[in-house]
Write a structure and sequence with these properties.
Blueprint (H helix, E strand, L loop, with lengths): L13 H8 L8 E10 L2 E13 L1 H7 L17 H4 L1 E6 L2 E5 L14 E7 L16 H19 L2 H34 L2 E5 L2 E4 L4 H14 L6 E6 L7 E5 L11 E9 L10 E9 L6 E3 L5 E7 L10 E5 L6 E5 H9 L4 E2 L7 H9 L1
Parallel strand pairs: 3-5, 10-11, 11-15
Antiparallel strand pairs: 1-2, 2-5, 3-4, 6-7, 6-16, 8-9, 9-10, 12-13, 13-14, 14-15
């Protein structure tokens, strides 16, 4: 058994550390700051202090008791938050943590493996607290620890780890952006498209895509829907406020809600009150299916088959006795039957309608 407390060696210069570990460089940073002196108002009381700034990988390298993902520690293990920070010591034995003395943002104490030893601290009978220390000496100890902490966070040592963290975060952000862009490119090339009035439309994959498609279609063919969009705001819970088509001014029109869904399911997360239409890409509710709203009101979905002779499309209606129907526009069916829009995969040669339109333009 080794005698004494282990303090890890200082890490490499920061540029070398970043070149070696990149985004994980802050986890491998280590710097020791050793101080000694006397308390300001009690010059007879000497202290010794060791403030070691350590990244998590440094801590894990010498402390086998730290709990972490993918590692089974011995019994009695603890987390960094439970063990690290600033310890008050007597006889060079840690007695009590005082992280609240140096905490201003919430968790910066986890970077410290720090000890402040003073023989003029008075302990309780179980040696688990310094509560018996005269208040004026304890106030001096706290002032000295706060002074040392302020000195450290204003030093080049602290600026080094902040630089490492900022560089790591910047690298992580740019790397994430690059990967996100590559993923979006692959998804775009693999999406289904259709042409409508020389405009390429993309099949939606989420609710926001349903809204984008609705706006595009309503702009290209205003009479395609019986309503006109007045306002759109997902933060309010209800997606769209609309009025019926026609020249009547908004101020004189009856306004109602249009709920947007990518996939229409039961139950609804809004009430049927003031709701006139639902717009979705597809539906999981079948003919005769029961749909319940947020207030517990029930409606039955009625599906009316398309009549090609009369030009009618497949209609979906939420019905309740003596209540106005709420029509559900299921884009997957409605657009194919109403305006013959067929969303097809982009081909390898042309990459779909978008590429074809671009080639025609050139």
């Amino acid at each position: 058994m080794d005698f004494g407390h282990h303090f890890p060696d200082a890490s490499k210069p920061i540029k070398e550390l970043f070149d070696t570990y990149i985004v994980r460089a802050p986890d491998y940073y280590c710097k020791q700051i050793v101080r000694g002196g006397t308390l300001r108002r009690h010059p007879f009381a000497r202290y010794n202090a060791m403030f070691c700034i350590e990244g998590n990988k440094v801590k894990q390298g010498y402390n086998k008791m730290l709990r972490r993902p993918g590692y089974t520690p011995p019994a009695g293990a603890y987390t960094v938050q439970e063990r690290y920070g600033v310890w008050l010591c007597k006889d060079f034995i840690p007695v009590e943590r005082k992280n609240e003395w140096i905490t201003s943002k919430g968790s910066e104490f986890t970077k410290f493996h720090a000890f402040f030893n003073c023989q003029h601290l008075s302990l309780t009978a179980n040696r688990g607290s310094v509560a018996n220390t005269p208040s004026e000496i304890l106030a001096d100890v706290r002032e000295e620890i706060e002074r040392l902490y302020d000195e450290i966070i204003a030093s080049d040592d602290w600026r080094e780890i902040e630089w490492l963290e900022s560089e790591a975060n910047a690298y992580l952000t740019s790397e994430k952006e690059r990967r996100d862009f590559e993923w979006r490119q692959k998804r775009a090339l693999g999406s289904n498209c259709a042409m409508f009035k020389d405009v390429a439309l993309v099949e939606p994959t989420r609710e926001s895509g349903v809204y984008a498609l609705l706006v595009q279609l309503a702009t290209l063919e205003p009479n395609l829907f019986p309503f006109a969009i007045v306002d759109y705001d997902t933060h309010s819970g209800i997606d769209v406020i609309a009025k019926m088509q026609g020249p009547k001014p908004i101020g004189l029109s009856d306004l109602f809600y249009v709920e947007l869904k990518f996939f229409f399911e039961a139950p609804m997360n809004h009430t049927f009150d003031n709701m006139r239409y639902v717009v979705c890409w597809d539906t999981a509710v079948k003919h005769g299916g029961k749909v319940t709203d947020l207030a517990g009101q029930e409606r039955i979905l009625h599906v009316a088959e398309a009549d090609k002779a009369s030009g009618n499309y497949t209609g979906y209606f939420l019905r309740r006795n003596f209540k106005q129907d709420i029509e559900v526009f299921v884009f997957k069916d409605y657009l194919r039957e109403k305006v013959e829009l067929d969303f097809r995969p982009r081909t390898g040669e042309s990459a779909g309608p978008l590429a074809a339109k671009a080639s025609a333009g050139t």
